[in-house]
Amino acid sequence: MARLLFLGRLEDLAGGPERALPLTAPTALADILAGLPADLAAALSGPRVRLARNGALVAPEGLVLAEGDELAFLPPVSGG
């Protein structure tokens, strides 16, 4: 089982702060996104969304999740 975490406005799009993701083998990010609703997958794939795998920022290219991993989707931050 892996966990997907959604922060900020992405939590609203996902319908909650996290989802459990059953994995039987290491799975590419593209395959994970393909299993999500299209509007959520599009938002998570945005160029300004950052990813953190197990607490460390990572690039989406070539990202593979395995059993026990946690992947957080971090939206762009603004404020003032």
Automatic annotation (TrEMBL):
Pfam families: ThiS. Transmembrane segments: none annotated. InterPro entries: Beta-grasp_dom_sf (IPR012675), Mopterin_synth/thiamin_S_b (IPR016155), ThiS/MoaD-like (IPR003749). This is MoaD/ThiS family protein. It comes from Novosphingobium flavum.
